Fold:
Amino acid sequence: MIEVLFSHIQDKVSLSDDDKTAIKSFFIPKRLRKRQYLLQEGEVCRCLTFVAKGLLRTYNVDEKGDEHINIFGWEGWWLSDFRSFLSGDPAVFNIDAIEDSELLMISRSDYEELTLRVPIMDRYFRILYQNSLVTKERRLMSAITHTAQEKYLKLSESNPEIIERIPQHMVASYLGIAAETLSRIRKNLVTRK
Structure:
């Protein structure tokens, strides 16, 4: 599992062998079975989680009981209720496994210690946060300016292998459209081909 993390880090910054040894000591491995929760709304998010293998989702449930998926996390992704992780306030998101998953977790205090002991990790996380902000801005603009079909096409073009792994009702929730609408869009696209 740790090799997946090292590979992801080294895509962004260079690590020495000493860095790797230090980094390894901060992470705790965890396995989740399909449908098992990593975090439930109302709990405090105590760890930042790296997905080494598998697929998870972060979502909230509205007062009508409808799920609204915020993000999917697969191999190489980080997940948390970040506000809760930083502040210690109750989480507003649920995180659960769509597939059996292998995770690496780091607590808030260990995260702080890691960035002090291995300074390149501070740069690595800064790059991740910058990329995350850009992604969220793009997603917000897409939600405002694109049709349901355009949103689906963009998602399927940017992540074709993931689309196949995610149940369609969850894809619809992530896109902010009804499952029936997504079904109609997919049918229309197949008919056009």
Notes: Residues 2-118 form a domain with the Jelly Rolls fold (CATH 2.60.120.10). The chain has a mean pLDDT of 94. Residues 47 and 108 are 6 Å apart (CA to CA).
